[in-house]
Amino acid sequence: GQQLNQSPQSMFIQEGEDVSMNCTSSSIFNTWLWYKQDPGEGPVLLIALYKAGELTSNGRLTAQFGITRKDSFLNISASIPSDVGIYFCAGQNVGNEKLTFGTGTRLTIIP
Amino acid sequence: DGGITQSPKYLFRKEGQNVTLSCEQNLNHDAMYWYRQDPGQGLRLIYYSQIVNDFQKGDIAEGYSVSREKKESFPLTVTSAQKNPTAFYLCASSLGGWGYTGELFFGEGSRLTVL
C-alpha cells in the first residue's frame, strides 16, 4: 500500500523553539489529517484539513493543506515539553478511499 | 466516558501460538479498524469493518483474522502464519466509513512480543 513521505524523520529541539514538518504524496488528496502519538499511547487527532490552500490553527499548532493537494505542513510555535511524541500525517484520496498514513516525525525536546 | 478499549496492553507469545487482541468501543461508531505500527514505518492497515458482519482486508492482512459480530467489538487474531508478529497494534473507530470525515479515534494500543 501507498505511504506518505514525512520530513524530517526526527527532530531534536530546545524548549521554546518553533517546529516545522511536512508530508508529501505522489497522489492528490482531498483530506489531510495530523495526529500526535504520545509514548505508549494511540494517536490523537490534532487538526483536519478539507480544502486546498486551507490554513487551520489549534492553539500553538498551525497546519496547511497544500495548493497542489499533494502536500501538507504542520508548524508548532514555542514548543513545550508536552509536545514530545510522534506526529503523523494522514491523507484520504479523491474518491473517499481509505486513509493513508505517513511514516511519522519523532519530536524530542532537549533539556 | 466514551472511548476505545484495547486489551491486553502487553502480551507475550511463543512462536506457533495464535493470540487474540480485544477491541471494544462505546462511541456507537459504525466503522472499526486495525493498524500495525513498527518503528519508522508509520501505521499500516491490517483489516477494517464498515458495518457489522462485514470486513475487508487492508494492506497487510496475511497472517491475521478478524470478526465483527457486534457493532462495539472488533477482535484481531494474530495467527501462527504471521511471519513477524512482534509489533504495536492499534484499534480505531470512526462514525462513518471511509467516505465520512476520515477522522479516526484510536485506542491505547496492544504491544505483542513473540518469544
Features:
heterodimer; A: 111 residues; mainly beta; six-stranded mixed sheet; globular; B: 115 residues; seven-stranded mixed sheet; four-stranded antiparallel sheet
Describe the structure.
The complex is a heterodimer of chains A (111) and B (115). Chain A has 111 residues and is mainly beta. Chain A is built from no helices and eleven strands. In chain A, strands 2, 4, 5, 9, 10 and 11 form a six-stranded mixed sheet that branches. The termini of chain A are far apart. Chain B has no helices and eleven strands. In chain B, 0% of the residues lie in helices and 49% in strands. Chain B has 115 residues and is an all-beta fold. Chains A and B meet through strand 4, strand 5 and strand 9 of A and strand 5 and strand 10 of B.
Structural class label of chain B:
mainly beta
- Counting H and I runs of at least 4 residues, what is the number of helices of chain B? 0
What pattern of helices and strands is seen along the backbone of chain A?
EEEEEEEEEEE
Total E-strand runs of chain B? 11
C-alpha-based Rg of chain B, rounded: 13 Å
Give the helix proportion of chain A (percent range). Answer: under 10%
Continuous helix count of chain A: 0
From the spread of the alpha carbons, the general shape of chain A counts as: globular
Stretches of chain A where pLDDT falls below 50 for ≥5 residues? none
Radius of gyration of chain A: 13 Å
Q: What is the CA-CA span between the terminal residues of chain A?
A: 38 Å
Amount of beta strand of chain B: over 45%
- Give the amount of beta strand of chain A, in percent: over 45%
The succession of helices and strands of chain B, N to C, reads EEEEEEEEEEE
Low-confidence blocks of residues of chain B = none
Question: What would the average pLDDT of chain A be, to the nearest integer?
Answer: 92
> In terms of quaternary structure, what is this?
heterodimer
Instruction: State the distance separating the first and last CA atoms of chain B.
Output: 36 Å
Q: How many DSSP E strands of chain A?
A: 11
Q: What is the largest interface, and how many residues per chain?
A: A-B, 26 and 26 residues
The share of residues in helices of chain B is under 10%
